[in-house]
Write a structure and sequence with these properties.
By secondary structure, the chain is α/β, with parallel strands linked by helices. The chain is built from 13 helices and 16 strands. Among the domains are: 156 residues, NAD(P)-binding Rossmann-like Domain (Rossmann fold, 3-Layer(aba) Sandwich); 78 residues, no CATH class. Helices cover 32% and strands 19% of the residues. The protein starts with a strand and ends with a helix. The chain binds dihydroflavine-adenine dinucleotide (FDA).
């Protein structure tokens, strides 16, 4: 073995694929029973509908290098993501745009009129001087829109009142003064035609790559554990950085989500893939309906059944899947301390969202893995 990769998410598999293509023998271990990390998806057993097991994943990028690279393993559908929001029993388009504003204020404002209205309402607070998230939000888009679509949604995500949350959680709240409600502005967008797992499996499908599942790097009963491998073989580690150092500098905090799945005996539950629920009296943040990600799979799409996930958000304990970095001041200090420790780990390269404690979209994880390969490992 020339390289050990810990974690088979997009970061780990990109490193493994590049190394294998360059003639290196690579072993990839993952503690889960499947490859792919959080992008893993599978067919729901009774309907065949592709379900994203760790939250909905939409691929989008403006990075031409990444786009060229990912197209070696999959084609993409022409899916364009759009999100809607049910507030007080009425459905609005997101991100907040001219359609949202006119529906909300029961008006027919022109772009200039809507812009002037939002500027006037936002005048209540200076976003630069905001003491908390509520003041920042009001200073960016005005109280009515902030309270309807952002305040309680964010409070549910963080299980914390918007007045108690730091202003820094939101740097900007985009408002579009057109009726364009495409969620992403990137040059390329789509879903993998044969699903995420087929894409991920093709990346790992190389005679120089061996994948071992159900192997935890910290389980010393396994041959490929930390003690046995560090200093013996180059390691790319994509698990949590605090876990690697046995939490010596404290635990970095994360948010997690709980997804409650239901298979329903109806053809269509909500008519779209993602519906937000921004009101405080609804306990979940959004509902995903997976068949709407692939309307081109007509047989599956047209059946009289559908699969939905209700998404609930909360702080993660050590036993939970870490999803979104909380990034408190203590977390940032902890991360700096771990980065110092990481410098002393000869031959170990920390990467991916868990190894660097940052939220990375898939194209960012793949892009940073390509950079690590080109700049450090090749
Ligand atoms: P990832 O977490 O995928 O992989 C790490 C792997 O390491 C895991 O398989 C884990 O089991 C393994 N591991 C950890 N510790 C280990 C140990 N001790 N021993 C062995 N293995 C170990 N992005 C996007 O572009 N569009 C989107 O719509 C979304 N949506 C989205 C929703 C939600 C809820 C989340 C949390 C994230 C997204 N993402 C996303 C981001 C996407 O999930 C992310 O870019 C990739 O997961 C990053 O891949 P990594 O390889 O870095 O981590």
């Amino acid at each position: 073995m020339d390289l050990l990769v810990v974690g088979s998410g997009f970061f780990g598999l990109t490193i493994a694929e590049r190394a294998a293509a360059a003639g290196r023998k690579v072993t990839v271990i993952d503690r889960r029973h499947h490859i792919g990390g959080n992008a893993y998806s599978e067919a729901e057993a009774t309907t065949g509908i592709e379900v994203h097991r760790y939250g909905a994943h939409l691929f989008h990028t403006s990075n031409e290098t990444v786009w060229e690279y990912v197209n070696r393993f999959t084609t993409f559908t022409n899916y364009q993501h759009r999100v809607y929001s049910t507030h007080k029993g009425i459905v609005y388009p997101l991100p907040i745009n001219l359609g949202t504003i006119n529906q909300f204020f029961n008006a027919a404002y022109t772009p200039a009129e809507a812009r002037a209205l939002v500027a006037e309402q936002a005048g209540e607070h200076d976003p630069q001087k905001a003491q908390n998230l509520e003041e920042r939000g009001i200073g960016l888009i005005g109280r009515p829109l902030f309270e309807a679509f952002i305040r309680d949604y964010t409070a549910k995500q963080w299980q914390t009142d918007a007045k108690e949350l730091p202003a820094s959680i939101i740097s900007r709240l985009p408002v579009r003064y057109t009726y364009d409600n495409r969620y992403f502005n990137d040059a390329h967008e789509g879903l993998p035609t044969d699903g995420y797992t087929a894409w991920l499996e093709r990346m790992a499908d190389h005679p120089n790559i061996e994948v071992q599942l159900n192997v935890d790097y910290f389980d010393e009963s396994q041959p490929l554990n930390k003690k046995a491998t560090v200093g013996q073989v180059p390691v790319v580690y994509t698990g949590p950085v605090d876990r690697y150092f046995d939490y010596a500098e404290g635990e970095l905090s994360w948010r997690t989500i709980d997804l409650k799945e239901e298979v329903l005996d109806i053809a269509d539950f909500q008519g779209t893939s993602v519906m937000n629920y921004p009101d405080a009296d609804v306990p979940f943040t959004r509902i995903h309906e997976f068949k709407h990600f692939h309307p081109e799979r007509t047989e599956i799409f047209n059946q009289e059944k559908t699969v939905i996930h209700r998404e609930y958000s909360r702080f993660a304990t050590r036993a939970d899947e870490p999803y979104y970095p909380v990034n408190t001041t203590a977390d940032r200090e902890g991360l700096l301390a771990y980065r110092e420790l990481a410098k002393g780990e000869d031959g170990v390269h920390f990467g991916g969202r868990l190894g660097t404690y940052q939220y990375l979209d898939m194209h960012m994880a793949i892009g940073s893995a390509l950079s690590m390969w080109n700049n450090t490992l090749s």
